[in-house]
Amino acid sequence: MRAAVLHEIGQDKLEVVDDVEAVGFGPGKVKIRVRATGLCHSDVSAMSGVLPQPAPFVPGHEGAGEILDIGDGVSGLTVGQRVLLCWLPACGSCAACKRGQTQLCLAGFMNAGTPNFKRPGGDVFGFAGTGTFAEEVVVDAGCAVPIPDDVPFDIAALIGCGVTTGLGAAINTAKVEAGSSVAVIGCGGVGISAIQGAKLQGAAQIVAVDPVESRREAALRFGATEAVAPDALADAKQRITGGEGFDYVFEVVGKSATARTAYETTRRGGTLCVVGAGALDDFLQFNMFELFFDEKKILPSMYGGGDVLRSYERAIALWRAGRIDLASLITHRVPLAGINEALEQMRTGAALRTCIEI
Fold first, then answer.
1. pTM metric for this prediction
2. For residue 1, with 0-12 CB atoms within 10 Å meaning exposed, 13-18 middle and 19 or more buried, which class applies?
3. Is 171 exposed, middle or buried (0-12, 13-18, 19+ CB in 10 A)?
4. Mean per-residue pLDDT over the chain, rounded
5. How do residues 284-311 score in pLDDT, each as one tens digit?
6. φ, ψ at 84 (rounded to 5°)
7. 3-state DSSP call for residue 30?
């Protein structure tokens, strides 16, 4: 079958090959025919080495498709069923799951070290234990989440990661209050979803911050009340908050420099929500006095900060009701053969989300 493979960490292009086989099928597993997958910035971060991932590997973790085969011991799923892929499934039995923090379950991460593809030259890993830049993938049954027939594959794929992450950051983690002021730094697919989440929560002012003009224009269509370039953020803070700072600031870039800017843009007693996935060696510094004196809450948000299955259901309900716009998040579409075009669209900021149709 065909798949897009990164041979070595640090390479900036993928090779689409046709000699890949999905492996690992057996008890507790399902095989999925991938129909659509989104390109998430985490895929690019794994390719560059910012996020740890063994290579060679097939990127992609934001996907949807239909079940081809079901292993022994799997219940609640049927062949032909439409599903989205959950790259961080909850095991239900670990300490995090028992506390109700299923988004912190590490069971899914353990799969990342087990190859789920092979080529004639050897094993190939799947990013985050999935690898949706392939025609087929074998995953744990818990990764296959059924979707209603009226949810298109491309919409379901977005819900599988970016939408859930952004909406959840505003709703679950930060719990944005009605009438509040919000700034969102980084307005790709996840940042736009955080903007939509803040709007749903009733924020009065939502300032989108991004260096790319087209993304700033898009943010206004999705609910931002103002959109500025990074060098204009200080002025927006002064005009909108009287220099005090925003009630909530979302960092959706994953770099210490923007996180520090986000902290300084948050008012005393306000909330900084860290959504971007950054590097292990990129350190964010605070002094002990400001932490004590400013009493700003620093809240990291992992995969939307809540039960992902409930978050999927909520996103579908909001989409059906017309409360959130998911179709417009997909600004570009390419076939699997055009994956490197999609990567360029991501790196230049031309795309909010590119859908790879497989």
1. 0.95
2. middle
3. buried
4. 96
5. 999 999 999 999 999 999 999 999 999 9
6. -105, 160
7. strand
